[in-house]
Model the fold of this input.
Amino acid sequence: MSFMRPAEPVYLLGPKAWLPERIVTNQDVLDWMGTRARPSWITHRTGVEQRRWVEDSQACSDIAAAAATRLLEDYRIDRRRISQVLLATVSGDFPTPPTSPLILPKLGIDGVGVLDLSAACAGFTTAVHVGAGLLQATGGDQLVIAADIRSKFLNREDLATTALFGDGAASCLVSKSPEQADFQLIASELAADASMADIIAIRAGGSRLPHHQNTDPAKVFLKMEHGATLFMKGVDNMSAAAATLLRRLEMTVAEVDWLVPHQANLHLIRTMTDKLGADRAKVVETVQFTGNTSGASVGIALAHLKERLPLRPGQSVLLISAGAGGVSACALLRSL
Done:
């Protein structure tokens, strides 16, 4: 595990979220797939009522830049403050090069460090953790972005996966300055469960199976296997990660004012909440109208809490995330 309690105060401006304009209902998904299943089947199994999908012309760098631009403009952040851009994604524009350098000209930024992070559904929380570490090491503000496009990797013949996912992005600035800050980072931690390292995967396109060697068209799409095992592992890993962080901080879940979990699906969120012993009224839920946006989901949900729910100064906010590869990440914030 990788526990971090900042030696000096670390602040977050934002996050700001960005969702595509295109709203895709459950009926739209079923029509796209050509299946006769009912929209209520999707809602019953996942809790998702609608999601947002990008247009064919949009790529990861586009939506990442859109979220970051919204942050920079809404907070009137001087781009010269930024020393590094961190992008959490598993759906970059290309296998090579990394996507973070492609964002810079879209933001009017140059001459800064860049870093792509691959942490799947734990992307936003992981990027905040890494950004806080780099901030303490370098002193320079870190622009954190989590962006994922899942709609372009969905198989029309796999309803269980295709019904679940949406696209989106979120961005925040990790800084030593409390000016305009929305949150202070209290502590964070990363972990991994290697036993589920390949349960969620796109099998083709990497060095294990390059595209030109692949003979199975299904392997270019996102696939979730062993559904019941995956569900319970997700519940176990998210609740265990949250409990471990709270134990390190000598806190109980009852002392946490808000929980912002990865928006995997509604049933997983609520089962995890119950296992953790938390009050469901304290849990932020956005999956109903965003779908599972992978690494961006916690950032999008945190923005929803900040902008739409009765968050008060001084309240504690626990970010909880886990996903593909068995990775998990948690962070405790204090609202300002």
About this structure: Residues 227-248 form the longest helix (22 residues). The chain has ten helices and 14 strands.
